[in-house]
Design brief:
heterodimer, A: 495 residues, alpha+beta, 8-stranded antiparallel sheet, 5-stranded antiparallel sheet, 19 strands, globular, B: 408 residues
Amino acid sequence: MQMPEPDQGVIDRRAEIIAAMRAIVPGEGVIADDAMLKAFECDGLMAYRQLPLIVVLPETTAQVSDILKYCHANGVKIVPRGAGTGLSGGALPLADAITLGLSKFNRVLDIDYANRCAVVQPGVTNLGVTKAVEGDGFYYAPDPSSQIACSIGGNIAENSGGVHCLKYGLTTNNVLGVEMVLMDGTVLRLGGKHLDPGGYDLLGVLTGSEGLLGVITEVTVRILKKPETARAVLLGFNSSEEGGDCVAAIINAGIIPGGIEMMDKPAIHATEEFVHAGYPMDVEALLIVELDGPKVEVDYLIDRVGEIAKGQGAIYSRISETEEERAAFWSGRKNAFPAVGRLSPDYLCMDGTIPRKKLGLVLQRMAEMSGKYGLRVANVFHAGDGNLHPLIMFDANQPGELDRAEEFGADILKLCVEVGGVLSGEHGIGVEKRDLMGEMFTEDDLKQQQRVKCAFDPDHHLNPGKVFPTLHRCAELGRMHISRGQVPFPDIPRF
Amino acid sequence: MIEILKPDTADQVLDAVKWALSEAIPLDVRGSGSKSGFGRPVQVGRVLDLSNLSGISDYDPGELVLTAGPATSMFEIEKVLAGANQELAFEPMDLGSLYGLGEGTGTLGGVIAANLSGPRRIKAGAARDHFLGFQGVSGRGEVFKSGGKVMKNVTGFDLSKLMAGSFGTLAVMTQVSVKVLPRPEKTRTVLLMGADDIHAVAALCDALGSSHEVAGAAHLPASVAARSGVGYVSGAGAAVTAVRVEGPGPSVEHRCNSLRDLFAPFGAVEELHSMNSAAFWREVRDAAAFTGDWQDYQVWRVSVPPTAGPTVGQHLRARLGGEVYYDWGGGLIWFALDARADAGAADIRRVIRDCGGHATLVRASADVRQAVAVFQPQPGPLADLSKRVKEAFDPEGILNPGRMTAGV
């Protein structure tokens, strides 16, 4: 992975930068010791590692603003970092950049039940938001699998999803406002406890921008009252295609489940051997469909889902009768990654989204690729919204296997785009998929995105080298010389 | 007479924008023109009429995604979706009647460009939350796209969000993709009679804070309720507070009963079923109370934290007279007042300053919209950033210049 050439001038000024940071963040908030920096050398994508220049852990918005002001004035780059659980290398350090950790922003500031929102600092974990309100029966809906560890600020940076997305939306649909700091130190508020702030939806473009537009210092999220009850049904099929058709049939019947997940045979076997969830071992595809709401609704819908599944050729069906059983159904799916980790020394977790009707084709082509590369693949799938997570198994100690796994992964993502899907559903682009952006976007598409970057951070000091395969200078992106006669255009017909 | 450019294809849109750039002639970008009364009047030389870019190009109900030309009429979209028992869950407003044009005049592109969302906003999200992707032509005369046709997507910056609510000032959309959802099997509305604004919003907050998945929460003071076309509402002779529940039959029945119990301490309770319920929420959605013989009144849409709603509403009426009603559990205040040169803008913005929120002047004469900030003025640094974003898409200011902010 080629990263931007480190600026030796900045590296040479390291001592001076450390002193400046210590003047802003006193005490232990500036980490410059190599052994301690090691803890920050990668995020959840461990294939890429780099020691940061230094790590700074501010505690206040004023400190963040002062740090960015200094860096802006002194040409120092910044890599923002939440909990470091990201899976696409979005928080991969740079040798000439400060890694700005938000872990000390870990307080819940305000819970406002009447207005159904909570104001928290970005370092609060996703589950921490729910923990703060669950005593009163509320929760925060988006639930990425890493929710126990990942931070809400990181969730916004990556627009992370989870199993609830189809019914309750992604992060971007559940964030009401933020306080953020621009690269020049300007502190801004976007949104708040009211809905749909007028003007351009800057909050919308900030969400999922992978730390390239600003540093988030406070977050206002929607909270919801927990549904009265939830039940899940396990449905087994002879093929993934049938499973996919069943998902479409459920949706066509007007039912939007709280969660609807699919696993293929390798994933079922891996997880069953790991957690003993009670999954059937003789099916090719397993659906977990969860209905939530009032008991009377859940009971009614779960029967209907059962009927629909029967009509779609389900060869296995089991409905949870107790909360423990429901949890057991989910335990396999939620442990799919570590379960596959037991089968293989290493694995790559891919993350593409496809139109659901292409599932059969995509799985078949993936099986062919598995043969071609000589690597096994297991699939877990957010079936409601088309988000695939192929887990490619390999052994990094075998020469060439990592490269083969990466090529395999790239082929899968290209296939996702080819069938009308996208490169990432919830993990982001980061460094991992950066060089594949051209598969989905034209040069003009990417330039337009980068121009938005320039509006926020004209010198490319925030998280450079991520998301975009080519770094354009903002001056070059902004250039447009048009005057009478210079733009070639055909005779405009009198439309 | 203003000349009209009426492209038939996306390529011709590109030609038109390039031509406008080379001649330095700004364009008034329109679908059907149904919302030309919304926003500041645009000072332009040419109209770019997109009405030929219409029609649904891709729709598979099982995928929950619909792709269409920007000028596809909402009437057509809703008809096709209804045929598959689906809908746009954000319940887009139809502003036609508010502008005296009649119903069903809006387009999909217009709904997105104005980010128009109805009463279900509180549960289902806004138009921007259902807008998955688009293709368009920037003010630079470049074709580009963003987003996609799938529901979960973190591939590059989400430029779609910027397009939603940008009133055509950033790019001309030539194709849009939206998320669609099944229509609820059954709908019912629970009414609470005679509550004052404060108790009504408290009751709505209780309902919205319950697990009953309320999909509409409005309060009409007596004078507004009296103008309803729904007999139960106009005949109440009192203020009417309403919550809507939707879903499978047995569930709606159960939740309705629970909400009736929840409302009982606040006053007398009634119910609206199917037709009446649908008519009532259409009225709330489209500000029907302020149409017809109220056509001369200026209309504001004020968004605040829901609990601040009643106080803001009281202050507005105390300072400026007029009428208010509340949607979004108190968080959306529709406010109509006697026409005046400043539309009461300074007073209105003073009232909401401390609670956080924004006020948009939805209906007023062109002169007034020219003179008064239609959208909430932004603090300096935010306004500067918005201006830089505009320049990133349209540096020469040829797309709907001044539609949102003077000089941008």
